[in-house]
TrEMBL record:
One of its GO terms (biological process) is lipopolysaccharide biosynthetic process. It comes from Haloferula rosea. This is 3-deoxy-manno-octulosonate cytidylyltransferase. Pathway: Nucleotide-sugar biosynthesis; CMP-3-deoxy-D-manno-octulosonate biosynthesis; CMP-3-deoxy-D-manno-octulosonate from 3-deoxy-D-manno-octulosonate and CTP: step 1/1. Keywords: Cytoplasm, Lipopolysaccharide biosynthesis, Nucleotidyltransferase, Transferase. The gene is kdsB. SUPFAM superfamilies: Nucleotide-diphospho-sugar transferases.
Length: 246
């Protein structure tokens, strides 16, 4: 078994072009995420998968490893599929978002460990518990997930999920966190399937996996570290980094 951490990092972004190289607290955003991954104990290797030579050059300059991929991939999973074709030793992949500079290395290790315990599991991901009264529950930019008793995902949605027609004490709402672990063979199967109807309706590629009968294990986590989608969020993350290092 060989578990590889892959950080997808593309240049194009309608809200934040060049985001991976945006400087935060003296380092490029992607450099911060790379450094977090170096603290992991369960990853055998870490690579940045990018579509732009400027990102590739920057990653190599700070001592990282980068794989060039196409700039026309419709999903992050398609980018992973191309990357692992160049990594024949890889049996399992943890997809770490390249815009989460505060990601907890322990969460990455937890997902990697799960794949060693259940090596035939198709996918694994994570979710934060939310209070049902939290305004985020109604925010379509916040993806929710409900699970079966054994922790496997039943459905992901941008709508409030579940809908509380009746108040049920102790039933949490889970906010999906965009980190995934995959079995190599499943990634190759996933990208061979056409985009599914639910995936297109919700704009959530993980629904393609569920619609095709895949099993996705969801780990509850209290890692609520914010990602960076806008320059304003970059400033907030910089404030957090500077305050914790002082």
């Amino acid at each position: 078994m060989h578990i590889t951490g892959i950080l997808p990092a593309r240049w194009g972004s309608s809200r934040f072009p060049g985001k991976p190289l945006h400087e935060i607290a003296g380092k490029a955003l992607i450099h911060h995420v790379w450094d977090r991954c170096q603290q992991c104990k369960m990853l055998d290797d870490v690579w940045v998968a990018t579509d732009d030579p400027r990102i590739e050059e920057a990653v190599r300059a700070f001592g990282g490893k980068a794989i060039m991929t196409s700039d026309s991939h419709p999903t992050g999973t398609d980018r992973l599929a191309e990357a692992i074709e160049k990594l024949p030793a890889t049996t399992h992949v943890v997809n770490i978002q390249g815009d989460e500079p505060l990601i907890d290395p322990a969460l990455i290790d937890e997902l990697a460990t799960l794949m060693t315990v259940e090596p035939e599991l198709d996918m694994a991901t994570a979710a934060n518990p939310l209070d049902p009264s939290d305004p985020a529950v109604g925010d379509p930019n916040v993806v929710k997930v409900v699970t079966a008793i054994d922790g496997r995902a039943l459905y992901f949605s941008r709508s409030p999920l579940p809908y509380f027609r009746n108040q049920v004490a102790g039933l949490p709402v889970y906010r999906h966190k965009g980190i995934y672990a995959y079995r190599r063979g499943f990634i190759q199967q996933f990208v061979a399937w056409p985009p599914s109807l639910l995936e297109q309706a919700e704009s959530l590629e993980q629904l393609r996996a569920l619609e095709n009968g895949a099993s996705i294990k969801v780990i509850p986590t209290h890692d609520t570290a914010p990602g960076v989608d806008t320059p304003e969020q970059a400033l907030e993350v910089e404030r957090i980094l500077l305050s914790t290092s002082s």
